[in-house]
Write a structure and sequence with these properties.
Number of helices: 8
Number of strands: 0
Distance between the termini: 33 Å
Strand content: under 5%
Structural class: mainly alpha
Largest sheet: none
């Protein structure tokens, strides 16, 4: 379950802005190696040494060559070609995309028109800035109330718990069997 919890930690940690691109890369390499060590023997095969060495080379390159550059880059940094539309949620800062849960959302033509009108109307910038400022203030207050615990440690514990629950559901699914009912006397009994 460790491999799955690490994958969940990458997704949730990047969404929360808690991990860097460097940490996400190392977690991904480690989770893939843990998965391979579990999966290959589970299906009766030997671990593929060439694949393991290639993954170790990627992990070493990330640690040795790209550590400085990737440590300060957030894990949810978009590495695309920036060929987004002019009015797009991908053009917003990552903090705002995460705060308003806009990751990967596409705007409809009506939403694009409304946003374009809001951009040119006088006074909307102040209204938007005050709304975003209020949301940031509430978020900071929530973080300050949980200051005694490490947010990354609590996020990892939640991911580990979710991984165990997911694996348990996959390994031991709930089976429903129906008892035959009498014809015409109503639905079958469970």
């Amino acid at each position: 379950a460790m491999w799955l919890s690490q994958l969940l930690l990458i997704a949730k940690g990047s969404r929360e802005g808690a991990i860097s691109f460097y940490a996400a890369g190392l977690l991904l390499c480690n989770s893939l190696m843990c998965l391979a060590r579990y999966l290959y023997p589970h299906v009766g095969m030997d671990l593929d040494e060439a694949w393991s060495q290639s993954l170790a080379a990627v992990q070493t390159a990330v640690e040795r060559d790209f550590r400085e550059a990737l440590q300060y880059m957030p894990a949810d940094h978009l590495c695309g070609s920036k060929k987004d539309e002019i009015v797009s949620t991908n053009r917003l800062p990552a903090l705002f995309r995460r705060m308003f849960d806009l990751e990967g959302h596409k705007l409809t033509p009506a939403q694009k028109g409304g946003l374009a009108v809001a951009m040119v109307m006088p006074g909307t910038g102040i209204l938007t800035a005050s709304g975003i400022g209020t949301a940031l203030l509430i978020r900071k207050a929530r973080q300050a109330s949980r200051q005694d615990e490490d947010p990354l440690q609590s996020l990892h514990a939640a991911c580990l718990e979710e991984a165990y629950a997911t694996i348990r559901r996959k390994e031991k699914p709930i089976e429903v069997t129906y008892l035959p009912g009498t014809a015409g006397a109503g639905p079958s009994k469970v």
